[in-house]
Structures are given as C-alpha cells and as structure tokens.
C-alpha cells in the first residue's frame, strides 16, 4: 500500500476530543474514568454553552462517520457525500457477507477507522472542488491518491472503485498528451487481470502500450511506462496462451505468443525478449512443430548466453532436450540434459537437478540401459531427500525402484536361460535373502560378458543407430 503523508486537517476542540475517544482505541477505558470524563464534559458544556453552536455540540455527540457526512453536506459537497454514503453501504454489506462465511472474520466497521474516513473526506471533497473548476487533472490526482491508499488485500474493492473513476476522468484530461489516460488503462488492465478476465485486461494493456509508444514517460519509481506496458502485455498474453494450450488451441496460442515476441523486441529489453522466445518455443513443441521450436529456443539460449544468465540458459537447454527427445534424437537430448544438471548444480538449483536427472533416467530406462538409469534416478532421489520434499521423494523413489528392478531382471533372466545347477543355486540363494544378485565368476566368459554388457552404455551413442531393446528378455 502506498504510504501517504498525514493530512493537514484541523478540527474543533470537541471534535478532536470525540475522535480520541472513538471505540477503535487500543486501550480499554475503565467505567469510572468514562463517568468522570462525562462529568467533566457536562461541566464544560454548562460553563461554555453560550459560546457553542449546535454544530459544535453535535460534533461530540454524533459518531465520527456521521460528522464526516454532515461536514460534507454543510460545505456543499453533495457529490462527495453521495459517493461516500454508497461506499459505506457497500462496506457494511461486504462485512456482513464476510461475517456469515468466515469464523475468522476480523474486518472492523468503517466508523471505527477514522483515518480512512479522513482520507475519504479530504480527497473526495478536493476532487469535487477541482471538478467544479473543470480541472480534471486535479480530479484524477485526488482519486488516484485514494486508490493508492486503499491498495491492500482487505480494501482492494475500494481501490478498484477509484481505478474505474480515474479511468473515466482520464478521458477528459487533455493537457498531458495522454499520459493520465495511459496510466488509467494500465490500472484497469491490472483490475481485470486480477479478476481473471484476461481478454479485457489485454485490451486495456494494448491501449496502454499504444499510448506510450515513442514516449519517454516514467512512473513515480522512474520506470519507463512503455517498458511497463510491454511487460504487462507479455504477462497477459502468456496467461491467455496457457489457457489456449490447455484447450489444445495451438494455432491461436502460437499466434498470440508471436505477437508477444514482437512486442518484447520493440521494448528493447533482452531478458524480456528471451522470455517471450522461451514460451513461444514451448508452444511450438506442444503443437508438434519441432524444427521451429528448436529455432526459437536456440534464440533464447543465445540471449541467455549473451546476458550471462546461467539459470535461463539451463531452462533453455532443458526445453531443447524435450524437443530432441520428442524427435527421437536421444543422443543430443542426453548431452543437453547433462549440461542442465551441471548448470543447476553450480547454481544450487536442486529442483532443476531433480527434473533433469529424472528425464535422463527415463531416457536410459526406456531404452534398456538400466544401470545408467538407476544412477540418475538415485541422483534425483538423493537430491529430493536433501530438499525434504516428501511428494517428490515418493515419486523419484518409485522411478529408482523400477530401474533397480530392471537391473535385477536382466541378471535373473540370464541365470534362468543358462539351465545349469550353478545358476539355479544362485537364483535360489537370491530368492532366500533378496539381496543383490551378481553374475557367477565360474560361469563361462561369454555369459559373464553378456551380462556385463547389458550394464554398459556406449561412450558415443551416435555409433548405434538405435538403442538395443534389452526388454525382449523380459519374462
């Protein structure tokens, strides 16, 4: 929430006393003290009654919320009163709804929050006064100050109300070249994005982007508005594309991500351009357009290398490995995944180590190299154990167990096929203790070499047109 300076508001003496005794006070006032204070005030009224007006007496006896409303009407701010009254009614309705739905309902009534009432009075009346003079920039500034003040989880609906008001007023501001209108579109885009209405959000962000093109406008934090517009559009386009991909609308997703990539290039931010290329590459992968996906992801890897961003480079390599795996290019996929593991270890990215190791284990396990598969699945399992991630530990433990079972299966099959007493003794011994089963040194060299060869992976997989399918020995 934006922190705003204290308001320079002056109050009559009795109003100030009444404000100090509001029920929102942190300390509980003893009954005896309340009685004494009442006697003191009655005495003050009796002594000074002739010098007090009815308004001053009412200022103490009425609630603070009522005093605020009376002040607005007395000073002629009828529009401000109408708007505040509608907000207070909605506030009470939302509190009642929350109270019914939740046992942990803690939101205080508005009359117990005088600071918020002060903000309403101060900025609403100033906005109305500026509107009478047709000084619309002043109207916008005061309404925006209210939106910033209520930018918190509890009062977000109030913020959204003033965002909408700012948007309408911004259309009337003509002296700033459209900057206020651009900012208002950004706020409305955020409002719809948070509400999950992505198409409406994209429309506002597109208008925000169009209004800031060629401008050097900056926000309060010194960030260029055009760059913020590009970032907002990319974020919304990506969320829209994710939904399209879930519904298998690949062409629409690719189309909107290409548009996002073009906007990222226009923004001149290499990191943003790389992110756009990454998501576009994944969309081409989901659509089965592998060559295009490789081209786009290669662009992402080059940008990551140029920025010296190891984490992004690892993500690029992992995505490229997925494409190569889908193409059946297992040798190249393995090379990229090993790079991912190395980068992840160097940067202490354990989740990336788990993911890449699991992918490597899957490749080796699928093609029959169970010893190598076990090594990578064990690496994934050990890493999840370090993270104490129980869900992932269970998942990697299952993969590791399957690969180890495949290892044992190969040896058991070979002992079974040998059809001699020595092999039978080994099998019976293994079934009794269920420990590790190894090939017998006394068995003929040809059989031992056959078993060992099943555990080895060629250094250069390119020498083999296909991985040997050792699963044909399964029983």
From TrEMBL:
InterPro entries in UniProt: Bac_ResReg_Asp_Phosphatase, TPR-like_helical_dom_sf, TPR_rpt
PROSITE patterns attached to this UniProt entry: TPR
Residue stretches of each TPR repeat: 314-347, 354-387
Presence of the UniProt keyword Repeat in the record: yes
Localization per Swiss-Prot or TrEMBL: Cytoplasm
Main location: cytoplasm
Pfam families: TPR_12 (PF13424), TPR_16 (PF13432)
Cytoplasm recorded as keyword: yes
One of the record's GO cellular component terms: cytoplasm
Keyword annotations of the record: Cytoplasm, Repeat, TPR repeat
Matches recorded under SUPFAM superfamilies: TPR-like (SSF48452)
BP GO terms, sorted: cilium movement; cilium organization
Cited function: Axonemal protein which is implicated in axonemal and/or peri-axonemal structure assembly and regulates flagellum assembly and beating and therefore sperm motility.
Protein name (Swiss-Prot/TrEMBL): Tetratricopeptide repeat protein 29
Organism: Ailuropoda melanoleuca
């Amino acid at each position: 929430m934006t922190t705003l300076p204290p308001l320079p508001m002056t109050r009559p003496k009795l109003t100030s006393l009444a404000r100090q005794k509001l029920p929102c006070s942190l300390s509980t006032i003893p009954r005896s003290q309340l009685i004494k204070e009442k006697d003191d005030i009655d005495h003050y009224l009796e002594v000074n009654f002739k010098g007090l007006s009815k308004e001053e007496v009412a200022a103490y006896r009425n609630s603070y919320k009522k005093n605020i409303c009376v002040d607005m009407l007395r000073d002629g701010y009828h529009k401000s009163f109408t708007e505040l009254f509608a907000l207070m009614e909605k506030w009470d309705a939302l509190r009642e709804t929350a109270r019914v739905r939740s046992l942990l309902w803690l939101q205080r009534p508005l009359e117990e929050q005088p600071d918020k009432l002060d903000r309403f009075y101060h900025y609403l009346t100033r906005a109305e006064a500026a509107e009478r003079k047709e000084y619309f920039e002043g109207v916008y500034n005061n309404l925006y100050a209210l939106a910033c003040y209520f930018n918190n989880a509890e009062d977000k609906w109030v913020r959204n109300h003033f965002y909408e008001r700012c948007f309408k007023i911004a259309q009337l501001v003509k002296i700033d070249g459209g900057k206020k209108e651009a900012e208002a579109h950004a706020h409305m885009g955020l409002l719809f994005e948070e509400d999950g209405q992505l198409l409406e959000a994209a429309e506002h962000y597109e208008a925000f982007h169009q209004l800031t093109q060629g401008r050097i406008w900056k926000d309060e934090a010194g960030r260029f508005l055009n760059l913020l517009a590009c970032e907002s559009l990319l974020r919304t386009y990506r969320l829209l594309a994710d939904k399209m991909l879930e519904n298998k609308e690949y062409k629409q997703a690719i189309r909107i991500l290409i548009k996002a990539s073009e906007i990222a290039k226009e923004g001149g931010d290499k990191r943003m351009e790389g992110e756009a290329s990454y998501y576009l590459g994944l969309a081409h992968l989901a659509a089965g357009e592998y060559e295009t996906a490789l081209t786009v992801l290669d662009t992402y890897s080059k940008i990551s290398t140029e920025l010296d961003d190891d984490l992004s480079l690892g993500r690029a390599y992992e995505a490229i490995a997925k494409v190569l795996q889908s193409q059946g290019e297992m040798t190249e996929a393995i090379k990229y995944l090993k790079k991912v593991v190395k980068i992840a270890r160097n940067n202490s990215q354990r989740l990336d180590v788990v993911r890449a190791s699991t992918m490597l284990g899957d490749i080796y396990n699928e093609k029959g190299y169970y010893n190598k598969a076990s090594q990578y699945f064990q690496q994934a399992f050990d890493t999840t154990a370090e993270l104490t991630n129980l869900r992932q530990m269970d998942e990697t433990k299952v993969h590791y167990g399957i690969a180890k079972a495949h290892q044992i299966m190969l040896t058991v099959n070979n002992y079974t096929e040998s059809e001699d007493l020595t092999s039978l003794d080994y099998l019976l011994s293994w079934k009794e203790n269920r420990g590790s089963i190894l090939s017998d040194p006394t068995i003929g060299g040809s059989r031992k070499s056959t078993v060992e060869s099943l555990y080895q992976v060629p250094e250069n997989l390119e020498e083999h047109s296909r991985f040997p399918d050792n699963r044909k020995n399964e029983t």
